[in-house]
Amino acid sequence: MVETNQKPWRKISTSRYFIAGAITILIFSMGLALGLIMEDHRYNLVEQVNAEQETRYLSLQLQYLYLTSFSNYNNCPILETALKEATTELDKSLRGVMEYEEDNEVNNERKVLMQRRYIVDNLRYWLLAKESKEKCNLDIVPIIYFYNTNCPSCPNQGTILTYYKKLLGEKVLVFPINLDLRREEPMVEIVMNQFDIDSLPTLIIDNKKYVGVVRQEQLGKIICSSLENASECSG
């Protein structure tokens, strides 16, 4: 009697475990699939931003070449507006996506690729801003900011740069370069050698190198000395 009563119970218990296991596998599979879909969506979003930045940069480059070829036309104010808008969008959109990608450990190759693209975009926009300032006398201050993730004082420098970016808006153009990518992106090594970067943080402002944390008051004087018209610099 005891054995015959236990057999049905065992069958029911086994079927329940089987159903629970099947549900667990199904939930896990759905979670994995959802994660892959979200990663692809994230990657496609970055690709879209990259395509927009590529088109925007090519347009600005063409505007610059046009201005230098036809110097009798004073279209520099138009270039100034377009350049500021482009770098603002680069800072807001692409940088935001890159920070999101840095937290994603699912696909490291994609993350590195997006980080490399961000560095390349920053460097070419810096070059264009630098040349535009010299040729069109644009009232802007392009700044290269060298840092890496192991630099303890770099966040402090970043905070100070953010302060002046908010204070002076489009007049201050900051282009951060992460030296952690020096092996993955050859341009990092080239720029490091160009400016002999051996300590962090380092800023490049008007082709002058400032090593170590540039304090808020000192940086304000440097930036204001490079600007012609800035009401925030008066007084």
Architecture blueprint of SSEs:
Layout: H1 2-69, H2 76-102, H3 108-136, E1 141-147, H4 154-168, E2 172-178, H5 186-195, E3 202-205, E4 208-211, H6 216-226
Parallel strand pairs: 1-2
Antiparallel strand pairs: 1-3, 3-4
Order of helices and strands: HHHEHEHEEH
Helix percent reads: 55-70%
Strand order, main sheet: write it out. 2-1-3-4
Q: Helix count?
A: 6
- Count of the domains: 1
How confident overall, as mean pLDDT?
78
Q: Could you describe the largest sheet, including whether it forms a barrel?
A: 4 strands, mixed
Structural class: alpha+beta
The dominant shape is globular
**What is the level 1 CATH name?**
Alpha Beta
How far is the N terminus from the C terminus?
Answer: 100 Å
What name does CATH use for the topology? Glutaredoxin
CATH architecture: 3-Layer(aba) Sandwich
Our estimate of the beta-strand percent is 5-15%
Specify the CATH homologous superfamily. Glutaredoxin
- Unreliable stretches: none
Cα-based radius of gyration, to the nearest Å: 26 Å
What is the tally of beta strands?
Answer: 4
Description of the molecule:
With 235 residues, this protein is an alpha+beta fold. The protein has a single domain, classed as Glutaredoxin (3-Layer(aba) Sandwich). Helices cover 68% and strands 9% of the residues. The protein has six helices and four strands. The protein has a four-stranded mixed beta sheet with strand order 2-1-3-4, sandwiched between helices. Strand 1 (141-147), helix 4 (154-168) and strand 2 (172-178) form a beta-alpha-beta unit. Helix 1 runs parallel beside helix 3 (108-136) and helix 2 (76-102) runs antiparallel to helix 3 (108-136). The longest helix is centred in the N-terminal third of the chain and has 68 residues, at 2-69. The N and C termini lie far apart (100 Å).
